[in-house]
Write a structure and sequence with these properties.
5 helices; about 180 residues; Alpha-D-Glucose-1,6-Bisphosphate, Chain A, domain 4; six-stranded antiparallel sheet
Length: about 180
């Protein structure tokens, strides 16, 4: 008999406390009807300009989702993956803007291998927006290897190839939009 009275009271207290906590968090903000337009299109436009609200319209119709810093929509990112597609990748972090390949041995020279690290400094297609480091490893035996940062022309060649490819990708994307 006592349980039948306690359950509704507990439910009421829980609902009341949730309502009070939601109200005090600022989720519900009463507005003055004189300051808000009754036209819903104007309110939507104002909210979009202020960055408020959520719209799923383009997601379901196949439109774009958003702008991501180093995602597949970025030309530099796509160009780097295209240029380095012959080497297995060991670490890829588009949030941090870095691509590191695995050690690659040329079939002609089995005692020497290279590792390439590409670091993005900006989203823009600029020469100073990307840094390429090539590491070389020379092995006399399997257990006796020496690795060092290479200052060869390969760094510049990879960087130039990535920049050219990124420019071509951007041009193709712009043509596709128009």
């Amino acid at each position: 008999m006592k349980f039948s009275i306690v359950k509704p009271i507990v439910k009421s207290i829980i609902i009341l406390s949730i309502s009070i906590s939601l109200y005090s968090c600022g989720i519900y903000k009463p507005v003055d009807a004189r300051k808000v337009s009754p036209n819903d299109e104007e309110r939507i436009k104002k909210n979009v300009e202020e960055g408020k609200g959520f719209s799923a319209g383009k997601i379901f119709s196949g439109g774009g989702g958003g702008t991501f810093q180093f995602s597949s929509s970025n030309e530099m990112w796509r160009a780097t993956l295209d240029i380095l597609d012959f080497i297995p990748l060991s670490d890829v972090d588009y949030g941090g803007g870095i691509v590191i390949t695995d050690w690659y041995k040329s079939p002609q020279n089995q005692s020497e291998s290279i590792k390439i690290m590409v670091r993005f400094l900006t989203n823009e297609i600029r020469a100073d927006g990307i840094k390429v480091n090539v590491y070389k490893k020379k092995c006399k035996t399997e257990a006796n290897c020496e690795s060092f940062v290479s200052d060869s022309d390969l760094n510049g060649e990879i960087k130039l190839a990535i920049l050219k490819k990124a420019a071509l990708i951007k041009k193709a994307d712009l043509e596709k939009k128009n």
